[in-house]
Design brief:
Blueprint lengths: L1 H31 L11 H6 L4 H21 L1 H22 L3 H21 L8
Helix pairs in contact: 1-3, 1-4, 1-5, 3-4, 4-5
């Protein structure tokens, strides 16, 4: 039984670091656009309704992503649910207003992984240190 719990704990650690670090990197990139021009992913109907520029909106998104990633690293049981919801919202937004259907599907798959992390983190004895 210890071997099974050890394996579960290792899987949980991998997911914790993945879903902690990736949002932090993506959040930081909202300020630099080195990986991608994030504003391209905004729906024109959304940008028309914003009370500020798309760049400002993406900066706010970046801050939220950094905080969410830090929360996953410090409290994966809670943070992973937030990441799950965040990824589903992004997917719905992409499906509703852009042509980035492949990214929307990828984010839904990532949301499933974050949900698995949340569930694994709730198992006693699997808390990743």
């Amino acid at each position: 039984m210890d071997t099974i719990m050890h394996r579960v704990s290792n899987i949980q650690k991998i997911l914790k670091y993945t879903y902690g670090i990736v949002p932090i990197v993506a959040g930081i990139d909202k300020f630099t656009n080195l990986l991608v021009n994030w504003r391209d992913y905004l729906s024109p109907s959304l940008t028309d309704k914003l009370p500020f520029s798309p760049a400002t909106f993406m900066s706010i998104v970046g801050i939220i992503e950094i905080i969410a990633g830090l929360l996953v690293l410090s409290r994966p049981k809670i943070g992973a649910y937030i990441i799950t919801i965040w990824l589903v919202v992004i997917s719905i937004t992409l499906l509703a207003g852009t042509h980035y259907f492949d990214v929307a599907v990828r984010d839904l798959v990532m949301a499933i992984g974050a949900f698995v992390l949340a569930r694994l983190s709730a198992i006693p004895g699997t808390e990743a240190k």
